[in-house]
Design a protein that fits this description.
Elements lengths: L2 H26 L5 H10 L5 H34 L14 H6 L7 H9 L10
Helix pairs in contact: 1-3
């Protein structure tokens, strides 16, 4: 992959990272941590225990999804830095540029991703 294309994906990923961090801050009510956000949520819960529990579960699920997205973005930026971005982690072939445009954090080619999903492995998040 050319440096110009890698730089373009890096900018896209950095923008995605900034947007995800902004969403997390907004969900938490500013620059508060996860524990403080949970305490704030408990203090503002309504008398309807079922609704309050559902709201809390939704907030935590959204937080987990966005946290996982940050891990995937950071892993993609690391692959750009080490020159392995755009190569399938399983088979080593080039990931189609169209796939990377649709999902800049893609770690696998379509064929390998389908195999992972069929075996129930899901999309494992790489460690940094």
């Amino acid at each position: 992959m050319s440096q110009q294309i890698s730089d373009s994906f890096a900018e896209q990923l950095k923008q995605m990272r900034a947007e995800t961090l902004a969403q997390l801050r907004a969900q938490r009510g500013g620059a508060v941590g996860r524990a403080e956000a949970a305490a704030n949520l408990r203090s503002t819960e309504s008398d309807d225990w079922a609704q309050a529990g559902s709201e809390r579960d939704l907030a935590f699920a959204m937080d987990e999804r966005e946290s996982a997205e940050l891990v995937a973005i950071d892993a993609a930026l690391k692959r750009i830095a080490d020159g392995s971005y755009g190569l399938c982690l399983d088979c080593g072939v080039n990931i189609a540029t169209a796939r990377l445009h649709a999902n800049p954090t893609a770690m696998r080619c379509v064929g390998c991703q389908e195999k992972v999903e069929k075996t129930g492995g899901g999309m494992a998040m790489p460690s940094l």
